[in-house]
Amino acid sequence: MDISFYTGAGGGVWSLEECARWAKAHDFDAIRLSAGGVADPETVLREGPDEINDTLKAHGLYLAGLAAHNNLLDDDPEKRDAAASRLHKAIEAASRLGTPAVITHAGSPVGFRFYGGYSAPPGNPSDRSTELVGRFKERFTPIVKLAEEKGVKIALDVAVRMGNIACNPQMWERVLDAVPSDSLGLSCDPSHWLWMMILPPEDAIRAFAGKWYYADVKDCEVSREMLFRQGIIGNWWWQYRVPGRGQLNWGTIIGALLESGYDYVLCVENEDHGLPGLAGIDLGGRHLRQFLPKKGEPYDRPPGFWKVE
């Protein structure tokens, strides 16, 4: 496994050259770019991949993936068509860039309330999960076919609060079954599972062995005192942290990923209010590195996946 981080470059943030120079100086192997700025898909398709690839290669880095979050499940047909067009271009741009992964999300028109009212049984009048899985199949089938043709894998983000039906094991099964393809999988980010109580995270990883196509890694901290004071409807009883500043066991998580067949990047994502910016990304990368085999040393993976049945 390599270590990467998520950032934008160009378009008002730091330049790709500045980004690459910092990444190399802080022992990163790769970066993941958002589909904007220097990595805007229309720019890449019009001008080609050389500016990005040559700049990264000059610093001994590579592009780990392209982030293109677009809500293809919006209730407004025009908005979901526009989102599909943007994702289509991002997949074509990723193929031109030679990066194997596009990270997106399944989307949702109702935020995280797609199951309907709390404590209401499945199929209640406000439960839209079945409808939205059907919409996912309709909207993502041509997108996944394009990814197959272009040799790109789509990794679905597992975050929930952005509005995303693919946010828990039940819905991962449903969307992956709806569009079965080796080009559609998941992006591992166990920070969400801690506060959602999808625990232990290593069992969630092993249950979907072979379907982790990317690993967006954050940590999380739950305050039991604030949970007592606010209950789950509060807004401050959990916080995202960079790896090493939260409550997740990264040695165990990385072991589960390796045992589940994942051998690509660990991509640091910084939403840590207590250590924002590059300082947090640097700490996260250093914390993760200690759990990996030394560079150049192969990992002797056991035969077959260790999968929860």
Major sheet: 8 strands, parallel, barrel
CATH superfamily: Divalent-metal-dependent TIM barrel enzymes
Helical proportion, percent range: 25-40%
Number of domains: 1
First and last CA, distance? 26 Å
CATH class annotation = Alpha Beta
- Name the poorly predicted regions: none
Order of helices and strands: EHEHHEHEHEHEHHEEHEHEH
What order do the strands of the largest sheet run in, or round the barrel if closed? 1-2-3-4-5-6-7-10
- Put simply, the count of helices is 11
Shape: globular
Gross CATH architecture: Alpha-Beta Barrel
Number of strands: 10
Output the structural class: alpha/beta
CATH topology category name: TIM Barrel
Mean pLDDT: 95
